[in-house]
Design goal:
Strand content: 15-25%
Distance between the termini: 102 Å
Low-confidence stretches: 1-23
Number of domains: 2
CATH topology of the largest domain: Purple Acid Phosphatase, chain A, domain 2
CATH superfamily of the largest domain: Metallo-dependent phosphatases
Structural class: alpha/beta
Largest sheet: 7 strands, mixed
Number of helices: 17
Shape: globular
CATH architecture of the largest domain: 4-Layer Sandwich
Mean pLDDT: 92
CATH class of the largest domain: Alpha Beta
Strand order of the largest sheet: 6-4-3-2-1-16-17
Helix content: 25-40%
Radius of gyration: 27 Å
Number of strands: 27
């Protein structure tokens, strides 16, 4: 009897010893390193022309993948299997590098080599459409191991076939609704969500749709906790946080943490918000690092019995105090040469060509008064000058939205701006050629329709600051005290050199006015009737006054002597415009004119009303 009793006691003790430390109640540590909205900023900035990651304390640039890699390696050297590295989406788009992804599959294997374990998809991963994203994933896998991909609320079409190639990666378990990974004895369940605003910002994801992020999160968090028996659920949520009118933290990811208590940690993205401290929502930390790799989030937690009993959060600044990883830097430098050879050399440029210099910053900050931006007018003027200088028909008006300005122009220590620096400012989109960027298109409207468009554009920033529009070839006034769709008091077309002519918006005036913008923005103009609930009607027309069925019909051909349409891109127009400016100091580099030192809003309050 004594021997049998002793054996039972021994088995109980042995069973207790081999159970997970988390189940025993002993605290286990986890270090979560994370980024969001990297937007392919492989190199530090701004300006990128001064970036020198293998030397420290000699420039003021921020970010850079070689610096991030060095920080990740340092943490892994110190803490080993305690460390997990995550990204909350929008890792692609924003520089020259993504343009070659479908053929080189460079960035995802690079991120794996840097130490990333799991990433989710943001809205910009779909900028080229689901088929192109599928190609990028396939080419990346050919090049080597990639981080695990999670996309939990993605929903494939049962009717359309345009997303079939992406679904293949779901079937092959490359793109998964969740991922389970063990770190330091902890079983972690990782999910990835695209939030409502991000879904709205992913029009080229169609025919893909996305399920309700909160309901999806609750479903999978419960599955992971109850069926998979994970210790923690970590959500990579490309949804975002913001402050409400009272200065309190709110937004989709705060709501997510409130409504889905089964989630233990929310790694947030999309809103480019820098959280110096974690937002604690009923014990759930919500964290975000800003954008562009300027910070590496570090959340250290102690876990006992599936509960976080201690957390410590900070964002490590990625700056010139960090010596970069030489191997990662060498790989990126080699990819720069690919960009030069395959994209820029035919245009007479190289990746590092210096285009212009400036003694002052040109900025567009959505959290300040957008009308005061000096960068917006520079871009719209560049489009106006380029189209009127390169196309016989020219244009009366150009438009460019604040939401498509992706970077500022900072003088740095030398003022010099490279091709890469200027491209980042207007880097979004693609057309029907191999050159990046949305193509410019030209539509025609009557004076009455132009007035209606201006009324809608006046109201548009109230729903999103991204909708603020900068104009070239136009100036207008408004009276905020007037009634609905009666705010605009005058519109004139022209420029400072040739003068301005008032627009007659009476029904009797059949004169057509040409508007040039990229195809993405003109799609917005085309749905003004829907946006205004039918109060404003606009029929987009060609130069003959004939209705057009698609914006693609209106794409401008820069050279009619060549086969096909030679598309004009925003960034090419901006580079050309900057190259036309004066070189007053004689160093062979044109300068951004003093005229742009301050903003010059083309839509101003009517002082007479």
């Amino acid at each position: 009897m004594k021997t049998k009793k002793t054996s039972v006691i021994f088995l109980l003790i042995f069973s207790f010893c081999i159970s997970s430390p988390s189940q025993q109640g002993g605290p286990l540590r986890l270090v979560i390193l994370h980024t969001n909205d990297l937007h392919s900023r492989l190199n530090g900035f701004s300006p990128e022309s001064e970036y020198s990651p293998l030397k420290v304390n000699d420039d003021n640039t921020l970010g850079g993948f070689s610096r991030i890699a060095a920080l990740i390696n340092e943490e892994k050297q110190k803490h080993g299997d305690t460390v997990i590295v995550l990204d909350a989406g929008d890792f692609l788009m924003g520089t020259f590098f993504p343009i070659l992804e479908a053929s080189t599959g460079f960035q995802l294997p690079l991120m794996k080599k840097m130490g990333y374990d799991i990433v989710t998809l943001g809205n910009h991963e779909f900028d080229y459409g689901p088929d192109k994203l599928s190609t990028i994933i396939g080419k990346s896998i050919e090049k080597g191991p990639i981080p695990s991909l999670v996309a939990t609320n993605i929903c494939f079409s049962k009717k359309a076939s345009a997303d079939d190639s992406l679904k293949v990666w779901v079937d092959k378990m490359v793109l998964n609704p969740y991922q389970i990974i063990e770190k330091n004895g902890l079983k972690l369940g990782i999910i990835g969500l695209l939030g409502y605003n991000a879904i709205h910002d992913a029009p080229y994801a169609r025919p893909l749709t996305f399920d309700n992020p909160v309901k999806t999160a609750k479903k999978y968090a419960r599955l992971l906790k109850e069926k998979e028996k994970v210790d923690l659920v970590i959500c990579l949520s490309h949804s975002g946080v913001c402050k409400d009118k009272n200065g309190n933290w709110s937004g989709e990811d705060v709501t997510l943490a409130q409504k889905v208590p089964e989630i233990d940690v929310v790694i947030s993205g999309h809103t480019h918000t820098l959280l110096e401290k974690a937002i604690m929502v009923n014990g759930t930390p919500v964290v975000q690092t800003g954008s562009y790799g300027t910070g590496l989030g570090r959340l250290e937690i102690d876990v006992s019995r599936g509960k976080i009993i201690r957390s410590d959060y900070r964002v490590i600044k990625v700056n010139d105090a960090i010596p970069g990883d030489p191997e990662i830097h060498q790989m990126i430098t080699a990819q720069e040469q690919q960009v030069t050879d395959r994209i820029l050399q035919p245009l007479g440029l190289t990746y590092s060509s210096v285009i212009t210099e400036t003694s002052f910053p040109l900025v567009c900050h959505e959290d300040t008064l957008l009308a005061n931006s000096n960068l917006g007018p520079l871009i719209s003027d560049a489009l106006y000058a380029y189209v009127n200088g390169h196309n016989k028909a020219g244009t009366d008006i150009t438009m460019f939205p604040a939401g498509m300005i992706r970077d500022n122009i900072n003088p740095g220590t030398t003022g010099k701006q490279s091709v890469a620096d200027i491209f980042r400012v207007v880097s979004l989109g693609s057309g029907n050629d191999d050159i990046p960027g949305y193509p410019l298109a030209r539509i025609h409207v009557t004076g009455k329709e132009l007035k209606g468009i201006m009324e809608i554009l006046y109201m548009a920033p109230s729903s999103s600051r991204d909708n603020y529009i900068y104009f070239g070839g136009l100036r207008a006034t408004y009276d905020p005290e007037r009634g609905l769709l009666k705010k605009i008091t005058s519109i004139e077309t022209g420029d400072d050199e040739k003068g301005y002519t008032p627009v007659d918006w009476s029904k009797q005036n059949n004169k057509l006015y040409s508007i040039t913008a990229n195809t993405y923005l003109l799609e917005f103009v085309g749905i003004i009737k829907k946006l205004s609930k039918g109060l404003v009607k606009v029929t987009l027309k060609n130069e003959k006054g004939e209705p057009i069925q698609s914006i693609r019909e209106a794409v401008i051909d820069a050279d009619t002597n060549m086969n096909g349409i030679q598309e004009i891109k925003d960034w090419k127009a901006l580079i050309w415009y900057l190259q036309q400016q004066q070189d007053s100091n004689g160093n062979g580099i044109p300068e951004i004119p003093e005229y742009y030192r301050t903003g010059s809003p083309r839509l101003q309050r009517d002082c007479l009303n």
